[in-house]
Amino acid sequence: MQLGLVGLGKMGFNMRERIRRAGHEVVGYDRNPEVTDADSLADLVGRLEAPRVVWVMVPAGDITRQTIAELGELLSAGDLVIDGGNSRYTDDSKNAEALDAKGIAYVDAGVSGGVWGLENGYGLMVGGEAEHVERAMPIFDALRPEGPREEGFAHAGKVGAGHFAKMVHNGIEYGLMQAYAEGFELLEASKLVENVPATIKAWQRGTVVRSWLLDLLVRALDSDPELDDLRGHVEDSGEGRWTVEEAINHAVPAPVISAALFARFASRQDDSPAMRAVAALRNQFGGHAVQAAGPTSGSGSTQS
What we know:
By secondary structure, this protein is an alpha/beta fold. The chain has 2 domains: 2-158, Rossmann fold; 172-268, Orthogonal Bundle (N-(1-d-carboxylethyl)-l-norvaline Dehydrogenase, domain 2), CATH 1.10.1040. The chain is built from 13 helices and 7 strands. It has helices at 10-21, 41-47, 62-74, 89-100, 117-120, 130-135, 137-143, 161-189, 196-201, 212-223, 239-249, 255-267, 273-286, and strands at residues 2-6, 25-29, 53-56, 80-83, 105-112, 123-127, 153-157. Strand 1, helix 1 (10-21) and strand 2 (25-29) form a beta-alpha-beta unit. The longest helix has 29 residues, at 161-189. The radius of gyration is 23 Å and the shape is elongated.
């Protein structure tokens, strides 16, 4: 099968390679001249035989929307566009409607696997009409992990369902990572546990908390046992926020995911105004000791 792939960053580059290893032809386009196969989007479209399939793998938001709009002007009726980025699911219906007016089909694909996907495969959650999903199935099969299709691929529902599923997936990821991180900190704080990395490594087999995320934590601890080389500043891609918003919209309690998201916000504060207020209140009502701000302490929060 022939595929056009727009965006050859950390994931797109490896996806191109994995699809090629499966025997398919991939024409990739990226603004980086060192990795691109085509000179422009127009050149990419011109190299593909109709009916075309083009996978968009660029940063979510305006860049994705602009890329899909441009493809809408370049492609023809009968072609198919797949948005495989971390787009918000509410964008999908708008993209699909705009393309449908030109006779171009649309599928949204949530993709998980990160930089390890080249060797391990990618977990895929897609949304769209069954006929359009089936048309791209050779590509989905090339990308997903080896083994039963249903253990690495799901046609989640209509347009938007793939990105909604990936949004929830990432919200769960926030909670899992936060739980492992808090466990690590508690072990570090204990005077009884003398070998924290070995303790966490022992959880990798036979325990109910074993997972790929735990394996990655062990890998990080192998190279930096106390994680001293890192600063505890954690960004969020947006999908955790969207998950919490949807939990509110659907009246679904999601305390773990919400707490994990807020913990990331707290990680960006040099000196938390909220915790300064708590310290002041404890001092006021109970006379509890407070610490004076140092010369490098900020009076507010910093967030990038």
